[in-house]
Amino acid sequence: MRSWYKYFINYNTEEKIVAKDASFADHKKSMEGYSSAKGYGSKEDFFRTHFLNAHPRHRYYHDYLRTHLNKADNILSIGSGRCVNELLLAEEGFSITCSDLEQPCMGETARLFPGMRFMKYDVTKGPVEDKFDSIICLSIFYLFDKTMLAEVFRNVSDSLKPGGSFIVDPCGAENNVWTRIIDDIICPLEMVLIMFLKRLTGKRRCIVTKKHQGYRTTNAELTAIAGKAGFRLRSIEKYDHFTEFGMRSNFFSRLPKGIVRLFGRGAPYVRMISFEKNLTE
Prior knowledge:
The protein is an alpha/beta fold. The chain has one domain (2-277): Vaccinia Virus protein VP39 (Rossmann fold, 3-Layer(aba) Sandwich). Helices cover 37% and strands 25% of the residues. It has helices at 24-30, 43-52, 57-68, 84-91, 106-112, 146-159, 177-200, 219-228, 243-246, 257-263, and strands at residues 2-10, 17-18, 74-78, 95-100, 118-120, 132-138, 160-169, 207-216, 231-239, 270-277. The strands form two sheets. It has a seven-stranded mixed β-sheet with strand order 5-4-3-6-7-10-9, with helices on both faces. It has a three-stranded mixed β-sheet with strand order 1-8-2. Helix 3 (57-68) packs across helix 4 (84-91) and helix 6 crosses helix 8. The relative contact order is 0.18.
């Protein structure tokens, strides 16, 4: 496991390093808010805006989850955010409860989806009261260090029935040589070059700011932590060879997608990892 960082041009402060998000408010700001100004005119508008026209990871999530979950199961989603995939699953007949530290679009969401089930829950603090057949957790594991991940797996285990499934996407490619190249060489170098170009063209003063984005893990590390909490690995499936290079790098984003995906073969952005809780508690 290692810390990883994002770099951006900062016009507003002289702050060169920004700490990892420490609260829901920080994370909301990093995600540029959860506005309900767009996409809440109707169910069709919601899914068109936040699923079909959003980041392609949502489509990978949906294709995987609908084939690895059972409609008869009682399912909990942890860190649901806007609940896009969860609401689509619910519309297709899955029994799912969403959870997060907050639900900033609750009013508009409940208006469109009156059957939505949501509870406020912090997975780092303890298990939920009920026992679920399956639990999913998408796009938040990168926020947890090893100690927190161990606690999360224990709390999820205590929230599952024996033999229950835990499906996660850690949000981001593995910690390997390819992600080190993009994180530690390509992205910071590009931002420094962009900063100097902006200064040369007379833009107002700017600096490069480095933000602690979270942690990159390997599949082996996650499997080992899960094993200590009473899980066995079922499968790992990888998707999206474009995002890590094509959406983070200014240079690679200008290349043909086929070339970008060739470089991205070693850094698939979506990792769907399925664990099973041991039958004996």
